[in-house]
Fold this sequence. Notes:
Layout: E1 12-13, H1 15-32, E2 38-42, E3 48-52, E4 54-59, E5 62-68, E6 82-90, E7 97-101, E8 104-105, E9 107-108, H2 124-137, E10 146-152, H3 156-160, H4 165-168, E11 170-171, E12 173-174, E13 182-183, H5 189-205, E14 209-213, H6 216-225, E15 234-236, H7 241-250, E16 255-260, H8 262-269, H9 284-293, H10 298-305, H11 310-318, H12 323-341, E17 347-353, E18 359-366
Parallel strand pairs: 7-10, 8-12, 14-15, 14-16, 16-17
Antiparallel strand pairs: 1-13, 2-3, 4-5, 5-6, 6-10, 9-11, 17-18
Amino acid sequence: MAEKRRRGTRTGFTTGACAAAAARAATLGLVIGCVPESVDCRLPNGRQARFAVSDGRCQAGQSHAVVIKDAGDDPDVTNQARLTADVHRLVAMPGVVILKGGEGIGTVTLPGLGLAVGAAAINPVPRRNIEENVRAVAAAWLQRDGLEVTLSVPGGEKMAKRTLNPRLGIHGGISILGVSGIVYPYSTAAFRASVVQGVEMAAYQGGNIVVLTTGGRTEKFAMRELKTLPSVCFVQMGDFLKPALDTAVRMGIRRVVIGAMVGKLTKMAQGETITHAGRNPVNTALLAELALAIGAPPELYQAIRQGPTARHASEQLAHLGLRRPFYQALAERVVQTLCGRYPNQFSLRVLVCDFDGGKITEASGGSHA
């Protein structure tokens, strides 16, 4: 009996890599008169990968090819998307390769993404990679004529509603992304990239402030607290605290707000730069010290120190009427830790909510606080 493959180990390909493969296959079809059933494509990282090609056809100076995205074991809203390329001849335009976005690929409507307003949301690295693959198989053809490559993703507009694109001012579809071409299982590289992009957009469009939240519930909470700020200022950073703060510093943002609940706040207070629950355990000793400092009895100190979660600690303290002082101490520790890590870089305001999204307390500190 064959060994069962361990879940979560299979790599996949980015939308950029699949778009490049589709463009290469369609270009081959135009050059040789037949779209291949598979194509070897050079990835941005220099590796070669083979992709299955479907719906290949060519006629009257144009060709069509589809590569279905396989994201491997990485959770991705674009998994199984049909990256589609239509290529047609540009008569007497030697050396010209024009890349366009069609159905299901977003259009940039705001500056700050490194792409021109009005352009298709095809990021620079995949854009270069797509053109390199097209030129690699059409060198002789391009000595006399040019090529226009139109990329599309049927259903892309619906997929985009589950991404940050609407918030980033990318309308009508998904983005073509990918720096290496490879998606690693559960690396959430695409989400990390969207966090960085979101902070960049906040810098360009939202002024001198960014509001970082750990998920949808904390974002709604923060938006209620900061009603006057435009939505572009709010970025769901998930577990990617360090990339978000590093980007804020790089972009010169001087006011940072963090909205979070007890578990993520504890990770921040203890100095974790990635706050995922599976990366490092919650430092319950830290929580116990904070509890003791606000007047918790010694026996509760031991119970919290030996307890399983930050939520357990907060629930124990709530029974004694110490929930708010505990959260206040925790928020102040977060400010101390992060402002110590980024000295004189920004002011920091930490908004703390409960598990129902209601405000408990807040703390502030840092430069220009």
